Amino acid sequence: MTESSSIHEQLKSLLTREGADFRVVEHEAEGRTELIAKIRGNRTEQAVKSIVVMIRFGKDAPRYALANVPGDCRVDLKAIRDLFGGTQSAFAPREKAEELTGCVIGSIPPFSFNEQLEVLADPLIQENEEVVFNAGRLDRSIFMKCADYFRIAKPRVAKIAMRGETA
């Protein structure tokens, strides 16, 4: 079993254990938000895009956060830097993101199974009754009630998304 498959199974177990209303959908392997939305038949803004961000604090060791924003938005790195009181923020290197999440880029779900990776979620996600995201695998997605996502993932809710012309 690959690490991503393991995350997929952990995620399904967590959602089942917590009584979430969710369904798993199998599809062709795809991690790009706009393309997978077409394949799954969901609105782009209904998708949760999950990106690992590195926050620096001068010469101290960086911290990492899992930034979750609607699929039609971009992550606001400055907002995340300011949220943590850091000196700089950037997308984490691919290798570090995959190490922290146990998933290949494009398959990262909006949940963390790593205590070194704090989960952030933009409140715009809550505009949807149901959200969808790749579930630890590029060929599997989960549709679930938005309220269940926030109840189970317990993200730190903060304005970290840019939508529209500024995105």
Q: What features would you describe in this structure?
A:
This protein has 167 residues and is an alpha+beta fold. It has one domain (3-166): YbaK protein, CATH 3.90.960. 28% of the residues lie in helices and 32% in strands. It has five helices and ten strands. It has helices at residues 3-17, 33-40, 77-84, 94-101, 146-153, and strands at 22-26, 48-57, 60-70, 73-75, 88-91, 117-121, 130-134, 140-145, 156-157, 161-163. A five-stranded mixed sheet has the order 5-2-3-6-9. A hairpin with a 5-residue loop joins β7 (130-134) and β8. The radius of gyration is 15 Å and the shape is globular. 39% of the residues are buried.
Secondary-structure blueprint:
Elements: H1 3-17, E1 22-26, H2 33-40, E2 48-57, E3 60-70, E4 73-75, H3 77-84, E5 88-91, H4 94-101, E6 117-121, E7 130-134, E8 140-145, H5 146-153, E9 156-157, E10 161-163
Parallel strand pairs: 3-6, 6-9
Antiparallel strand pairs: 1-8, 2-3, 2-5, 4-10, 7-8
List keywords for this structure.
167 residues; alpha+beta; YbaK protein; three-stranded antiparallel β-sheet; 10 strands
- Overall pLDDT level: 94
Strand order of the largest sheet: 5-2-3-6-9
Q: Can you give the helix content as a percent range?
A: 25-40%
> Total strand count, please?
10
CATH classification class: Alpha Beta
- Backbone CA Rg: 15 Å
Percent of sequence in beta strands: 25-35%
Largest sheet: 5 strands, mixed
